[in-house]
Amino acid sequence: MSPDSWSVGARCALLLGGSLVIAGVSGCTESASSSDVKFSLRHQLPPGTEDRLCQLVQIPTSADGEVYVNGRTHQWAGGGHHVGLYRTTLDKLPAGVELDRDEQCWGGPNSLMQYATDFITLEQTEKATVDFPEGVALPFKSGEILLMQVHALNASDFPQTVTVDIALRTIAKSQVKQKMALLQFYDPYIYLSPRAGSLANLRCEIPGDVTMIEANAHFHTHGVDHQVFLDPPSGPRETVPFLHSTDWEHPPRWSGTMALPAGSHIRFRCKYENFEDRVFVQGQDVYANEMCSFWAYVYPAPEDRTAMDCIGSHVSEYGVGTQSCAATTDCIRACPPGDSPDLSVPGLFTVGACYQQCIVNSCPSAGALLDRQEQCATASCAAECPGPGCQACVAARCQAEVAACQSASSCS
Question: How many CB atoms lie within 10 A of CB 135?
Answer without folding.
Answer: 12
